[in-house]
């Protein structure tokens, strides 16, 4: 079984639920310490505190920060605190940076009423949170010398980077940009021995998915399309992350990896029944 050192830290942006929480649990179970960045209130904050306790129960360190990860001042505050923590622990380093931020505007580009369409501020906010923030965190972590050679960076994308869904335009653009940032970072950080990949999970029943209009239909179609007959679970992605963070995953770089049980390779139109001419022998 892969075993990490507790001096290796996973810096997880969006740590309190979904993919981020599953990654924190899996990596802690394999011996990696966790720095969790999340933005929660009330019930969400309680979930984050329970996750922190779960991580610590594995005998590793659990540093959690309830801040807006897209705010440059809060980013510097977190990394200042982490740098102070590392200064007391020789050999401590960020081995893995995971971008799992899911917050964006879900509105159409074009609408009858001006208030019903995406605004410039909403487009820019979505792009900043769900794409550009990966660049800014990576820049600062690397600049501070927190991630030496052998480090890993990954970001969560979706098939929506290439497909059209109602109200998903701003998020789709952000996911496409996120994949592009991953490729560019892989190229620029390769000489330092740091790998960067995007992870395309299949449809997963997370709080972020439930905010998308028509999510029930997305779930139903994914279940019909997936060759393995179920939705992707956050734990499916977390298991791949453990491998990606290990020595065995060191040659995977600049990729968009599908982790979906084959869902994305199946193209079916469930909106109509096949015509008689569509079936049978030619």
How is the secondary structure organized here?
Elements: E1 8-13, H1 18-29, E2 33-38, H2 43-56, E3 62-66, H3 72-87, E4 93-99, H4 120-143, E5 152-157, H5 169-189, E6 195-201, H6 207-210, H7 215-225, H8 234-245, E7 256-259
Main traits of this protein?
Rossmann fold; globular; 282 residues; alpha/beta; seven-stranded parallel beta sheet; disordered C terminus
Shape summary: globular
Q: Uncertain spans, ≥5 residues at pLDDT below 50?
A: 270-282
CATH architecture: 3-Layer(aba) Sandwich
Structural Rg: 20 Å
Count of helix runs: 8
Averaged pLDDT, please? Answer: 92
Would you report the number of β strands?
Answer: 7
Q: Tell me, what is the CATH class?
A: Alpha Beta
Helicity range:
40-55%
CATH topology: Rossmann fold
Order of helices and strands: EHEHEHEHEHEHHHE
- Approximately how much beta-strand content do the residues carry? 5-15%
Q: Compute the number of structural domains.
A: 1
Largest sheet geometry: 7 strands, parallel
Explain what this protein looks like in three dimensions:
- The chain is an alpha/beta fold and 282 residues long.
- It has a single domain (8-259), classed as NAD(P)-binding Rossmann-like Domain (Rossmann fold).
- The chain is 40% helix and 15% strand.
- Strands 3-2-1-4-5-6-7 form a seven-stranded parallel β-sheet, with helices on both faces.
- It is globular.
- The protein starts with 7 loop residues before the first strand and ends in a 23-residue tail after the last strand.
- Mean pLDDT is 92; it is low at 270-282.
């Amino acid at each position: 079984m892969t075993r990490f050192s507790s001096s290796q830290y996973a810096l997880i942006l969006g740590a309190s639920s979904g993919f981020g929480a599953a990654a924190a649990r899996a990596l802690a179970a394999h011996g990696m310490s966790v720095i969790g960045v999340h933005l929660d209130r009330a019930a969400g904050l309680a979930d984050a505190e329970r996750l922190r306790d779960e991580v610590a129960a594995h005998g590793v360190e659990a540093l959690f920060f309830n801040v807006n990860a897209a705010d440059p001042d809060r980013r510097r505050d977190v990394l200042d605190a982490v740098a102070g923590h590392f200064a007391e622990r020789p050999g401590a380093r960020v081995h893995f940076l995971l971008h799992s931020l899911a917050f964006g505007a879900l509105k159409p580009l074009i609408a009858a009423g001006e208030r019903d369409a995406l605004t410039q501020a909403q487009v820019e906010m979505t792009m900043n949170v769900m794409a550009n923030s990966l660049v800014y965190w990576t820049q600062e972590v690397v600049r501070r010398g927190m991630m030496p050679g052998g480090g890993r960076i990954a970001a969560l994308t979706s098939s929506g980077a290439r497909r059209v869904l109602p109200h998903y335009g701003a998020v789709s653009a952000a996911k496409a940009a996120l994949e592009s940032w991953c490729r560019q970072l892989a190229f620029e950080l390769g000489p330092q021995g740091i790998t960067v990949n995007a992870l395309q999970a299949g449809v997963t029943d997370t709080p972020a998915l439930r905010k998308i209009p028509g999510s029930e239909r997305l779930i139903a179609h994914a279940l019909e399309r997936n060759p393995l007959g179920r939705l992707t679970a956050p734990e499916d992605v977390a298991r791949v992350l453990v491998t990606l963070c290990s020595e065995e995953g060191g040659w995977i770089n600049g990729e968009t990896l599908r982790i979906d049980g084959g869902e994305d390779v199946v193209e079916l139109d469930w909106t109509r029944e096949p015509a008689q001419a569509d079936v049978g022998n030619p």
